[in-house]
Write a structure and sequence with these properties.
The protein is mostly helical. Helices cover 79% and strands 0% of the residues.
């Protein structure tokens, strides 16, 4: 049961970090993503509750798999969790984001923003997963 609580806590912290990350980088992200904007310069249609729920659920999935990998690999200390999480974000998730963006002919800036968040979020998840 503690594993489920740890995974949920890791996802919650990573989700909150994402809110801060994308608020700080909203302008460059809007430009790089090419998303249609309304008259106020915000994405058309506003924030979708469905997208936010999906985002959180996918972060729970990532945190749960990271917890499993950490248990199987003997990653137990916060330092090891942080470094392992950063590695997962930087060397697994970010390259996949880069592949998708390159094939969609998206700007490198979008890859840096989204890959940077993936790296940060996985690092945070790794840290949280090893705190308890």
């Amino acid at each position: 049961m503690l594993e489920v609580v740890n995974s949920l806590a890791a996802a919650i912290v990573a989700f909150a970090a994402g809110a801060l990350w994308y608020m700080a980088l909203a302008g460059p992200w809007k430009t790089a993503s090419g998303v249609a904007l309304d008259a106020e310069g915000n994405p058309q249609g506003g924030m979708s509750v469905r997208v936010m729920i999906l985002t959180f659920v996918m972060q729970v999935v990532v945190a749960g798999m990271m917890r499993h990998v950490f248990a199987a690999s003997g990653v137990e200390t916060p330092g090891a969790g942080l470094v392992s999480g950063l590695g997962i974000g930087l060397f697994f998730i970010s390259p996949w984001i880069a592949l998708n963006n390159a094939n969609s002919m998206r700007p490198v800036t979008l890859t840096l923003i989204d890959g940077g968040y993936a790296t940060l979020a996985c690092g945070i998840m790794g840290l949280v997963l090893t705190l308890f």
